[in-house]
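Researcher: We're teaching a course module on how sequence relates to structure. For the next exercise, students receive a sequence and then see the predicted structure as tokens, so they can try to spot secondary structure elements on their own. Here is the exercise chain.
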Amino acid sequence: MNLNQVTLPVHDMAQALQFYLTLGFILIVDTPHYARFECPVGGATFSLSLEDEAGKTVGKGCGAIIYFEHEKLDEWVSSLKHAGIEFDQDPTDQAYLWREAILHDPSGNKIKLYWAGENRLNPPWRV
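Model: And here is the predicted structure for the students to work with:
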């Protein structure tokens, strides 16, 4: 089994497209109500679905968090800051052995940019 993609609800497709293009993702589907991106490394994809303010799937604090891994996390975050992306948390070493930066997209979806290396699949406490 393999995860195909995650779809995030957005309120403003044009604003969301620009945000994710600035992060460095590759746009592969572009419609007025749906967009899909390919990650620059690997075969993973994720998508955006336009929802109006009354949409049941739309809402801040829905609990979903999307993670994007990059080996040169600190350099990536620095370049994104120079491009105008704002972060809630700079890259920080976590107790679970990941290094993470936190931000939100224009629709309020929480994003963690991280590097975990070998600890992503094989942490010292793996069963």
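Model: If you want an answer key for the exercise: The longest strand covers residues 5-10. The chain has two helices and eight strands.
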